[in-house]
Amino acid sequence: MQLHISPSLRHVTVLPGKGVREFIKVKVGSRRVSYRMLFYSLLFFTFLLRFVFVLSTVDTIDGDHSKCSTIGCLGKRIRPRILGRRIESNIPEVIYQILDKPVSKDEVQGKSDIPQTLEEFMAEMKESRSDAKSFALRLREMVVLLEQRARTAKIQEYLYRHVASSSIPKQLHCLALKLANEHSNNAAARLQLPSPELVPALVDNSYFHFVLASDNVLAAFVVAKSLVKNAFSPEKFVLHIITDRKTYSPMQAWFSLHPLMPAIIEVKALYQFDWLSKGKVPVLEAMEKDQKVRSQFRGGSTAIVANNTEKPQVIAAKLQALSPKYNSLMNHIRIHLPELFPSLNKVVFLDDDIVIQTDLSPLWDIDMNGKVNGAVETCRGEDSFVMSKRFKSYLNFSHPLIANNFDPNECAWAYGMNIFDLDAWRKTNISLTYHHWLEENLKSDLSLWQLGTLPPGLIAFHGHVHVIDPFWHMLGLGYQDNTTLADAETAGVIHFNGRAKPWLDIAFPQLRPLWAKYIDFSDKFIKGCHIRAS
Ligand SMILES: *[C@@H]1O[C@H](CO)[C@@H](O)[C@H](O)[C@H]1NC(C)=O
Ligand SMILES: *[C@@H]1O[C@H](CO)[C@@H](O)[C@H](O)[C@H]1NC(C)=O
Ligand SMILES: *[C@@H]1O[C@H](CO)[C@@H](O)[C@H](O)[C@H]1NC(C)=O
Ligand SMILES: *[C@@H]1O[C@H](CO)[C@@H](O)[C@H](O)[C@H]1NC(C)=O
């Protein structure tokens, strides 16, 4: 018999083997409990409670049928019925005592003879005909060992997923390198974007202005292509792509060689914005400090992993909090849209993990009632998993600063596809508030919130949000794999928020085509870097 625990701990498989069948037959025969029944109970118990599967096996080994200890009897009562029948059992108390004792840290350290599988364990028991106490001690050792292994595997799995989602796949690296090379060798890849005669459109409020901040060329292209392709009047669309220093030349090369006429595309690196080069930029300073605090956060990653009393999910969350991804300038820069685009009065801000499936110009017809940020709410909706986000999901309400200022049940909203009324924004102190709270969070050692730009966003835009129809922004495609293709197709904009980004191997295969269909896989750069449709 083999006991196999999957790293996700969702599946426990018990494979019957010859030895066990014999064992159970031998021990069980006299008790009129069928092998099959015992096998099912074993399976069931293993699944439900880590120790309970003992119950069915134990009494066949050391069955003192006359006594019924209180815990033993309780165990008898709480045990589930198998195939409508209870399994009769009297468990010696010593077994409960041994199994109930808290596990100490180095309990199984240095012991090399612990059975590694149920099969070995059973064989050993069969051979030695142990008493209940040594049975329980052995079992305990085995279960502790298996648990430690499962725990390690689980943390590893979380880490792999985290690494997989935050690192850049080699195909995308390849693409950036090839494009950078093209940029230096081919004048056609160095066009000014947009061309000089279209520059006035960049500050003309009769156009529809979109802003996208990204350091991922392919992702940015899918957003741009899907935006333009689904537009009724693409010639009225201006997309401002903001990128960082290292991505600037690949981005410029790509959009020079793959123009999306008649739409107007601007590619600009952050350092090229006047406002940012004028000196003091609070977001940059805050980020620098933030990075410093994070690297020492709770003793750094080694200390976090070393704590073996913590749940794997908690460990994974703490490690994630250290990730530079949550601190990238591309993420924080949206709080300075009014300063970055001083002549525009309204923009739609897009994340790079979305796909647009409809014409977005009607967003300009939405009456924002004087509010600054048009966003979808994330606390109501059919999908109770994705749509369950309130302030308490993001902010630490055990902290008095948060508890005294905000309502834990206030509905959260989403970044990803937001209408920003920059005129209204300029009349507020939103950016100041944002920085004030970033500072507070740093001062209190990241105890107000841990991750990302949404929590300070929720605070800064508090009272400045206008709720728009959920059609405009469907969330969760990067972490909920039960979203169907048909459902996703009905949304105006879909958002692959979560780990399973469509450009990664861990993307959900049924949803990836919604993203991949905007890429020409026969393109020489795409093909040259082995980027494939699936
Ligand atoms: C491990 O985590 C637990 C639960 O959060 C905490 O109480 C304990 O102090 C931590 N141990 C170490 C060594 O950090
Ligand atoms: C997906 O599963 C979650 C729970 O896991 C559920 O709340 C949600 O309604 C499901 N969504 C769909 C589209 O079936
Ligand atoms: C913005 O902050 C300044 C200084 O703190 C204050 O004087 C002003 O009234 C605030 N404006 C708004 C609209 O809250
Ligand atoms: C939340 O705030 C409380 C009170 O300051 C603090 O003790 C706790 O560690 C914070 N929680 C997190 C997850 O930072």
TrEMBL record:
<comment type="pathway">
    <text>Glycan metabolism; pectin biosynthesis.</text>
</comment>
<dbReference type="InterPro" id="IPR002495">
    <property type="entry name" value="Glyco_trans_8"/>
</dbReference>
<keyword id="KW-0808">Transferase</keyword>
<dbReference type="GO" id="GO:0047262">
    <property type="term" value="F:polygalacturonate 4-alpha-galacturonosyltransferase activity"/>
</dbReference>
<protein>
    <recommendedName>
        <fullName>Hexosyltransferase</fullName>
        <ecNumber>2.4.1.-</ecNumber>
    </recommendedName>
</protein>
<keyword id="KW-0961">Cell wall biogenesis/degradation</keyword>
<keyword id="KW-0333">Golgi apparatus</keyword>
<keyword id="KW-0328">Glycosyltransferase</keyword>
<keyword id="KW-0472">Membrane</keyword>
<dbReference type="GO" id="GO:0000139">
    <property type="term" value="C:Golgi membrane"/>
</dbReference>
<dbReference type="GO" id="GO:0071555">
    <property type="term" value="P:cell wall organization"/>
</dbReference>
<dbReference type="InterPro" id="IPR029044">
    <property type="entry name" value="Nucleotide-diphossugar_trans"/>
</dbReference>
<dbReference type="Pfam" id="PF01501">
    <property type="entry name" value="Glyco_transf_8"/>
</dbReference>
<keyword id="KW-1133">Transmembrane helix</keyword>
<comment type="similarity">
    <text>Belongs to the glycosyltransferase 8 family.</text>
</comment>
<keyword id="KW-0812">Transmembrane</keyword>
<dbReference type="GO" id="GO:0045489">
    <property type="term" value="P:pectin biosynthetic process"/>
</dbReference>
<dbReference type="InterPro" id="IPR029993">
    <property type="entry name" value="GAUT"/>
</dbReference>
<feature type="transmembrane region" description="Helical">
    <location>
        <begin position="37"/>
        <end position="58"/>
    </location>
</feature>
